Structure to design on (170 residues):
C-alpha cells in the first residue's frame, strides 16, 4: 500500500501492468523501510505484527510483491511473532503463497472470496479472521440471518489445525 500512496493508485497499477526497473527500485526502498520497522518491533518484544495491504492482483503478488513480503515477514521469528495480514480483496488464489511466506493470521472477506472457495484452501494451517460481509448480512440482515451465516462459517473454518475469529462490520 505504501507504494500506491507514493505513486498514486493509477500510476502504481500501470507500473505493475508494465513492470519497469523503477518499480523494483521503489519496491526495494519501501521494503527497506518496513524491514527497519519490523526489526524495531521485534526488538521491543511485540507478539503480533499487523500488516495491511489490498493484494487483489494475484499475479502482482507472485511476481512483484511476494519476494518483498517474504523478506519482511521472514524477519519475524516463527514461534514468537504472529504475522497478521488484513487484506480487503479477492485473494483466494494467493492464500497458499501467503501461508508459505509466513502469514499466520489472515483477515479475509467472506463474500468477496466465497466461503466455499476459502474452505477449500489450506486455511486450517492459520488463524482466519473472517470479516462477515458488511454490505448485506450485517447491514440489512435479521438477527436470525446473521446467526445462520455465522453458523455456516464456524464449521467451515473452525478446525483443529487452525483457529477462527469472526469480525462483524457495518
Amino acid at each position: 500500500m505504501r507504494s500506491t500512496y507514493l505513486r498514486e493508485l493509477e500510476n502504481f497499477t500501470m507500473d505493475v501492468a508494465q513492470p519497469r526497473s523503477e518499480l523494483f527500485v521503489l519496491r526495494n526502498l519501501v521494503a527497506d523501510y518496513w524491514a527497519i520497522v519490523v526489526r524495531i518491533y521485534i526488538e521491543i518484544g511485540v507478539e503480533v505484527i499487523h500488516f495491511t495491504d489490498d493484494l487483489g492482483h494475484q499475479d502482482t503478488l507472485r511476481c512483484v510483491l511476494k519476494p518483498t513480503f517474504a523478506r519482511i515477514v521472514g524477519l519475524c521469528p516463527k514461534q514468537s511473532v504472529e504475522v497478521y495480514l488484513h487484506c480487503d480483496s479477492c485473494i483466494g488464489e494467493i492464500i497458499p503463497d501467503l501461508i508459505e511466506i509466513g502469514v499466520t493470521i489472515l483477515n479475509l472477506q467472506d463474500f468477496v472470496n466465497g466461503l466455499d472457495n476459502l474452505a477449500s484452501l489450506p486455511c486450517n494451517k492459520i488463524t482466519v479472521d473472517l470479516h462477515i460481509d458488511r454490505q448485506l448480512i450485517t447491514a440489512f440482515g435479521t438477527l436470525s440471518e446473521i446467526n445462520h451465516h455465522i453458523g455456516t462459517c464456524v464449521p467451515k473454518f473452525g478446525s483443529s489445525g487452525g483457529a477462527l475469529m469472526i469480525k462483524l462490520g457495518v
Q: What stands out?
A: The beta strands are 48-52, 82-86, 105-109, 127-132, 163-168.
